[in-house]
Input
Amino acid sequence: MLTSAFSFTRLRAQFIKEVLSVLRDPRSRMVVFVPPILQLLVFAFAATLEVRNVDIAVYDQDAGRWSHELVQRLDSARFITHVRHVDSQQQLHELIDRGEVIAALAIPVDFSRSIAAGESGRAQVLVDGRRSNSGQITVAYLSTIAADVGAEVVPDAQAPTPVVVRHWFNPNLVYRWFIVPGLTGILALFSALLITSLSIARERELGTFDQLLVSPTSTPEIIISKSLPALAIGTALGLFMISAGVFLFGIPFTGSFALLLASLVLFIASVVGIGLMISAVSMTQQQAILGAFAVGVPAVLMSGFATPVENMPVVLQWLAQAIPLTHFLIIVEGSFLKAMPPGDILASLWPLAVIALATLTMATVFVRGRLQ
Amino acid sequence: MQASPAIAAVPAGAGEDAAIVIEDVDKHFGDVKALRGLSARIHYGRLTGLVGPDGAGKTTLMRILTGLLVPNAGHVTLAGYDVVKDNDAIHVASGYMPQRFGLYEDLSVMENMRLYAQLRGMDADRNADLFAELLDFTRLGPFTKRLAGKLSGGMKQKLGLACALMARPKVLLLDEPGVGVDPVSRQDLWRMVQALTDEGMAVVWSTAYLDEAERCESVLLLNQGQLLFDGPPQELTAQLEGRSFRLEDVGAERRAVLTQALDLPSVSDGVIQGAGVRVVLREGAQAEQLQALSDQARVELAQVPARFEDAFIDLLGGGPGGTSTLAERLPPVELGSDIAVSCRNLTKRFGEFTATDNVSFEVQKGEIFGLLGPNGAGKSTTFKMLCGLLKPTAGEAHVVGHDLRRATGAAKSRLGYMAQKFSLYGLLSVQQNLEFSAGVYGLEGNTRRERIAEMIETFDLGDWLSATPDSLPLGHKQRLALACSLMHRPPVLFLDEPTSGVDPITRREFWTHINGLARKGVTIMVTTHFMDEAEYCDRVAMLSRAQLIALDTPDALKRSAVSPERPDPTMEDAFIHLVESADRELEAAT
Output
């Protein structure tokens, strides 16, 4: 019987087996179909850095014209659900302690009087430091309101805010415009990582991996047959998220689709390599899933999705360059909002190609290493 | 016999009281009837075997006895307590060792024992005596600091037994304690159980091994959820008296003789025993046909004592026929050389540990070659090196002339492999599994279609094509696994504990095919824990502590164990004898 290192017949048989395994395995199916829908809903609607639907406590000791003006504006501010009026400093503290309000405004007795006297009115803002991020944003909103009141006090003075900020690419700072393109990468990352990390571990649990290793099939054939379904599913998911971004959320897509698609495929290929490495060293599917999360979560945190890569220590910045998601995020965010020129995309594309080559080669070595 | 004074709490007036009373128990899972109208009594001070093929309902009954399952109808009392109403009392009165005992693999032997003591509400520090006693009893004393995960199969079972004995139960329930345990460790387990029943404890030992059943004082024989027999095994065996025969020293022709014998209408069952063929006549049948066969083969026909296994097979309506439809279709194997598999100075080290030490042998074309040895003796490491799953540290292995290190692809396309648990793709249908194994061995076009159709027809899989392998009856599952590993018609077939956990009838069918293949010149390499399977082998290589300690025909190995006390040793006796004398030599040398 003639045997060669590569046979299309063997590859085809294994490819069909892999596709059927992914589609028929409830665990794999869940990995493929549930997270996209769930994450789409969770991230796009719930995970937002804007502050909304909060309560503010007001202890108005003044009851003069200007304090009335200030409270009225708070009342009509859209981010506040209720303005809770209290009668003592004590109550104010309690509301913050119990977490019922995020911030409290204490207006002193002489607030309107001072303003009438031509001095500046001072009010105290107490913020719940346990929710530091939302608290800071609330303070920023509150100072804008205070500044507006100030502008009314001195109508003919200069503009209260001397600087006018214009946000490029995302003029209204719509949070979703930023998060949905990033999600494309994260979602594709986890799907491809889980599908591949389960694939060898599943066979090992069944005992079929030994069966595969005693057959004349070669390691590259095993790697290719296990990569292709994950590559196809990951790319399809990425495309699904991109179209959801464009058609559902109306995010302007300004870059080159062809280049984005190429980067998506390369990105997933590099993730597939990582997943196969995890799978090659896992004895059970449980270990494989844990391994995928142990690698996937830090990768997302360090990729620049939540915090800028530039803020990290230098050593970690180097490490971040080895994470495929870092490069893909630059490309996908650039393609959506800022019409990134091909030259800039290529600058992030070649590292992806290098990483893909490295991880797939390592995966081959890992799988072959199982024969020791 | 070693005594274990305090372990069993002997109930007062144990003589007449039944330890367990089972009355009209029914249990079904959906449409599957696991137990049907079962009634039986189990007595104190006796070892009761719960015997039956896979899926007979043994585990279901065990779990009802321990109160883990509630029967759909009927009552069970254990030590006087109703298993449903007095569930808490059951846990105190009984010790249960499930098939895979819940040992914590990352805890040491001692930590596991302390944990189980504490779970039973015992103060581990105040029970130092009990611990010492249990460790002595199980001979685990030297290993208290070893992690449970690092113990051999036999030692794990002993630790499980120690934990189950922790609360001094009146009734001990052991669910297939002998599975995956080598004969030496098995003998240890028997010794312990014997000591416990002598103390007055009721012990229930469930098993699919019929030689184990024969050693029980009383058996409950289950099949498809029904009780077929209740009583001492000798009583059942006695019904078969005069129906068991052996064709002595048939030699090279024994496989052909077995096939002929099994195809006789008067024969209900037959197996190979070394160079001989053992047959059982149908009820009421005469030995004339058999006599004619032995005359024709020019061998002696001797009457032999019946075994429990004979009675069991007879009760189930006899074994399968002797002709392998599979082997009939295969063309005879042509090889360039007479040596199908060989290894020279084969050695495998994992760090400091040597798993296989300098093993050499040659296997002839068409030979059935067995690899036997205690757990951890290096049997499976050696086997894996021979089929290319492990790379040897030193030495070399050849399959049909190809060096496994260099020409892996060429060597691998000439071998078939069937693993324990029949590694099939559970997510794929039967048809897809067949397609896959044809494809992965590079079969294309017409050849591929023909081979698949041939396998479906030979193994009668036509009705199951769209089912998943897991939903198949055990026998069909085994046929499918065999079909997948033979799709490319390999001249060498590797079988790794192929019939572990398989009932005797399915096992016979399997060996019919294997015998047929061997007659066509296919070389068979097999590892097994079943001593009666070793009897099918032409030659057996016995491994102990990584070394080859014996290599000979089963009969010669048995002869080497002959002693004044044991004039006619079984394969199991030979196994224990060889391993123990190898151990003694090793101790003498150091």
Notes: The CA atoms of residues 59 and 106 of chain A lie 5 Å apart.
